[in-house]
Amino acid sequence: EVQLVESGGGLVQAGGSLRLSCAASGLTFDSVAVGWFRQAPGKEREGVALISTLDDSSYYTDSVQGRFTISSDNAKNTVYLLMNSLKPEDTAVYFCAVDPSGIAIAAEYPLADPLYDYWGQGTEVTVSS
After folding, report:
1. Which has the least CB within 10 A, 7, 83, 110, 129?
2. Is residue 99 within 8 Å of 116, Cβ to Cβ?
């Protein structure tokens, strides 16, 4: 059974930083795509960033480019999202998801929900102004 467990969320002031973790089990981790998504209250879920664990290639949505960094530790089956210069508009529940085929990184819309088969339960991030 594939399980994804997010951690690292919390309350932080604007301008601060948080590092989220996504620990995966039940799948081979060395050639998948792992995405981070978020859903703010009253809004649709949106993709934030993704990484290919095969070659560490990554992709970011425009709103977080330059502020967020995604990384992978394949030995620990864990993907991280380092979030710097946080803004109140980054407040959301953050989810990680896995595309076992790894093809999402090359897709026209790499953070499209249907590309991802497995999802975690989320971790909440609140950025105060």
Report:
1. 129
2. yes
